[in-house]
Amino acid sequence: MPSSVYLCLSRAVFLVCFVNPLIMQGLSEDVNEIQDHHHHQQKENLTGLPIVTFRWHHVQTPYLVIIWVFVAGLAKLSVVELSHHVTSVFPESGLLIMLGFVLGGIVWGADMAQTFKLIPPTFFYYLLPQIILDASYFMPNKLFFSNLGAILIYAIFGTCWNAATVGLSLWGCYEAGVMGDLDIGLLQFLLFGSLIAAVDPVAVIAVFEEVHVNEVLFILVFGESLLNDGVTVVLYNVFDAFVSLGGPRIDAAEIFKGIFSFVVVAFGGSFLGIVFAILLSLLTRCTKHIQIIEAGFIFVVGYLSYLTAEMLSLSAILSITFCGICCQKYVNANMDEKSVTTVRHAMKLLANGSETMIFLFLGITAIDTEIWVWNTGFILLTLLFVFIYRIIGTFLFTWMLNKFRLVPIEVIDQVVMSYGGLRGAVAYGLAAMLDEDKIPEKNLMISTTLIVVYFTVILQGITMKPLVQWLKVKRAAHSDLKLIEKLNNRAFDHILAAVEDICGRIGDNWWTRGWNRFEENYISWLLMKSKARKNRDYLFNIFHKLNLEDAINYVSEGERQGSLAFSRSDEAANVDFKKQFGSEFADVMPNIMVDVSNYELGIEHFSVTSIVKDTIPSVSLDIHGQDRKNAMDDINAHHLLQQHLYRSRKNHRHKYSRSHFSINQNEDEVQEIFQRTMRSRLESFKSAKMGVNPAKKITKHHKKELMHKMSNGHTDSTGHLYEDEVDRAVGREAGAINSTFMRDMYTMGAGIENPVFLPDMDSPAHSPPWLMETEAVAPSQRAQRRLPWTPNRLRRLAPMRISTCSTDSFLMADVSLTLEEHDEQPQTDSEEMRPVFD
Amino acid sequence: MGSRASSLLREEDIDEIKKETGFSHSQITRLYSRFHSLDKGENGALSREDFQRIPELAINPLGDRIINAFFPEGEDQVNFRGFMRTLAHFRPVEDNEKNKDMISGEPLNSRTNKLHFAFQLYDLDRDDKISRDELLQVLRMMVGVNISDEQLGSIADRTIQEADTNGDMCISFSEFTKVLEKVDVEQKMSIRFLH
């Protein structure tokens, strides 16, 4: 076999190309060579029937593509598997770029030219769409829309500001003669300014995800970078048009047209995306029988929205962004659960894959003598201006926003935001798209862009984490020294959150509420299957959760009584406690150590409290021992509190993850708190109804009881179970329906069958206690006011989706009662099931 | 709806509230429309149920305690004046107010009052002391169920020990203030009300 074929093959295996022949202009030479050989071969073989033939050119393109994909995968693998010392310092994106340098070096070494480059069409048509779709599809919607104003200001005005200031300053410096002799005019500088203004979502997410920032900061930077890509492309196109028009022919009318086209392109793109989102949602309503492929529609329609926008010269990025953001809710509800999972995984796979490729190729592209044009003044000044104007812009716009924001953006957040202005592949793609005829200094612009990208992604990426940590440490250093401070800080957060809610920070916003109602009534009705509307039901989920929780309780109960004790991991903390105290107290209190050994099978019963109580007040002879013990105790207590205190809304982490979807612990916390609140309200409601306790003491009483219950796995509350149903029964029989509540009920849409409610309500086993108690106790005023919540009406309620973001207080109030009902069922079951474990 | 609600509020009421709480005129009308929309009974006062209808409060671990803080002892209703008085605790301390404090006595949003609001959330029996029991209840509300009673008990003991200077195993308000003196309460207990 000819050696050149060998060479070519081995090079292909080694180097691998990415998409389509366009990348490989340099390869065409080789291709011709191969084809010659091939013809030659065929001629030789004509004498007999070939058993096998080597047909490289048949598969060349897809082969190279797939091999590059493979290499990218290996690159990602090797980067991730690197030792922690490296990965904790370098961001993944930076490492990939550096690996790209190496690979590029190998290609260059073999070819003496860069045969594989990231070229704009590949990037914009095959690599970028899925990343944007992924980011928007997993966008935490509520957070995004509640910060939409700020995001838009940063994305639109911030980008324009960056483009204009960078362009103008560079032009000023050029006029002042800092850059020597260059063939660039004002318009070209502005064009360059606009392309360099794109803060790259890929790079930003990659870095921000590793640095854990609070969710508002995250959504601001993330949303901004996502939208500003769209804005940058639009801006770029406008300036590109100006450049082709030429300086002298631009008058006021043209400038006005430019601004107008900016608006049309941006909003037209967004609107198109929404239209496609609606189409997609409608489509998924009727894919019940083709569940295997329904997941594919999301990608196809999303891509279609991108291409359509591109075809209409609207903003493709904004189009696919809004398509993803708007469809997620309905699509997820309409599709089968398995398809949703498929979509999620496929989305992450595609996005992660192309992200890896982009960074890798950003590195590979650099190893090319052709594109490098050095102009110290231009490059350094660009770096400086990009950095400085980002900071100035951020502070300027934040200062303006803070005048209107309820929760001002803190200075630290602003620093992180301005430092997070990473440039990425979009800037490079736009630079590579420049027309050499119109912009003679294209290569200088490309090399400058590449340097800015490397500088921001690698250097800023590396320093970001220490910066954030340093700022955080500085902030946290003076507080949280004592348990009580820690506790109170958290309490303050909760108090503030509650007061904000009471003041209606979100809730009083009439248009939010109006929109929610409109959305629930019409849009969901239009875009969602009725079955999906039901499944989405919040109550149902809570019911499910409660059941699950009880099941877990049974198991743990069984574990405790059986021999499976402490196989569960959350008892690890207790073990620590035991060890600490054991070693510290061994000499002081031998008798307790005996106890400890007795409790080997039930560590939960080991009473730390008793020890603490006994030792601390008493005078200890060994002062050092006391100190040391206190320190240990302290560490443990701090640790425990830190781990277990409920987080307030402010401290919740962001919900978007680049590479995986974490199960959000906050959701569980929220559920837990919600259930508790409801239980306690139920208790207080019951006591009030019975008229036994005066109002003030109820709280105290039921809280205690509640605590007790919690620790005992809700066993002893079964006695009161039926009391609440009494009211409902009365309500149902009397049919006394309060008009105030009726009004709201009717706005809620069609009823559905939810079997969940039925057995519990109609079970004849429950009737004796009802009858007994209804006659014995006359419901108090409060109880009577609640009568309207009868089971019939609950069923009508069910299709409503009630979530924490719902602003309709009526709904929630109703839910709370329904929930209580759900609450009871598992407990009843628990009574019946207990013997199994005993 | 907002305009209708605000028209129900008389100018002299607004002036009085302004004087008492330091809120601006527009803040008062805005909060009044919120008050009005919470008031489902439309009787000019909020009951506990009115507060409990706010969905977010159901997922706030201290939600019910905070609701209770709005109600004067032994009462089941709170009118707009009382509502505003409680909210005034959360008004940020403005620079020009720091001097005014000296003249017109303690405003509702002073550091002491902010702390006292927090203190009252613990102090259920209103004896001006946080007992171990009361602290335990709040702790239990604020931590997950994964933490055992024993652990919580030791945390409570530890916390009391930190604050307790006179050895009565309770935290009095002065002890509470003292132990939190390094905490930036002015900032942590303030929200920006819309103008």
From TrEMBL, chain A:
GO MF annotations in UniProt: potassium:proton antiporter activity; sodium:proton antiporter activity
Entry-linked Pfam families: Na_H_Exchanger
Entry keyword set: Antiport, Cell membrane, Endosome, Ion transport, Membrane, Phosphoprotein, Signal, Sodium, Sodium transport, Transmembrane, Transmembrane helix, Transport
Membrane topology: Multi-pass membrane protein
Ranges annotated as spanning the membrane: 5-23, 63-82, 94-110, 151-172, 184-208, 217-239, 259-283, 349-367, 373-399, 444-462
Main location: membrane
Top-level taxon in the UniProt lineage: Eukaryota
Residue ranges of coiled coil: none
Swiss-Prot/TrEMBL GO biological process terms: regulation of intracellular pH; sodium ion import across plasma membrane
Domain Cation/H+ exchanger transmembrane intervals: 82-470
Subcellular location: Apical cell membrane; Early endosome membrane; Recycling endosome membrane
Reactions that this protein is recorded to catalyse: Na(+)(in) + H(+)(out) = Na(+)(out) + H(+)(in)
One term under GO cellular component: recycling endosome membrane
InterPro entries tied to this protein: Cation/H_exchanger_CPA1, Cation/H_exchanger_TM, Na/H_exchanger_3/5, NaH_exchanger
Family as reported in the entry's similarity comment: Belongs to the monovalent cation:proton antiporter 1 (CPA1) transporter (TC 2.A.36) family.
Task performed by this protein: Plasma membrane Na(+)/H(+) antiporter. Exchanges intracellular H(+) ions for extracellular Na(+) in 1:1 stoichiometry, playing a key role in salt and fluid absorption and pH homeostasis. Major apical Na(+)/H(+) exchanger in kidney and intestine playing an important role in renal and intestine Na(+) absorption and blood pressure regulation.
NCBIfam families (alphabetical): b_cpa1
Name of the protein described by the UniProt record: Sodium/hydrogen exchanger
Organism: Carassius auratus
Automatic annotation (TrEMBL), chain B:
Localization in the cell: Cell membrane; Cytoplasm; Nucleus
Keyword Cell membrane: yes
InterPro entries on file: Calcineurin_B_homologous, EF-hand-dom_pair, EF_Hand_1_Ca_BS, EF_hand_dom
Keyword annotations: Calcium, Cell membrane, Cytoplasm, Lipoprotein, Membrane, Metal-binding, Myristate, Nucleus, Phosphoprotein, Protein transport, Repeat, Transport
Domain EF-hand: 26-61, 110-145, 151-186
Domain of life: Eukaryota
Annotated Gene3D superfamilies: EF-hand
Pfam families to which the protein is assigned, alphabetical: EF-hand_7
GO BP annotation list: protein transport
GO cellular component: cytoplasm; nucleus; plasma membrane
GO molecular function (one): calcium ion binding
Classification via CDD domains: EFh
Cleaved signal peptide residues: none
PROSITE patterns, sorted: EF_HAND_1, EF_HAND_2
PANTHER family to which the protein is assigned, alphabetical: EG:114D9.1 PROTEIN-RELATED
Family, as annotated: Belongs to the calcineurin regulatory subunit family. CHP subfamily.
Name of the molecule in the record: Calcineurin B homologous protein 1
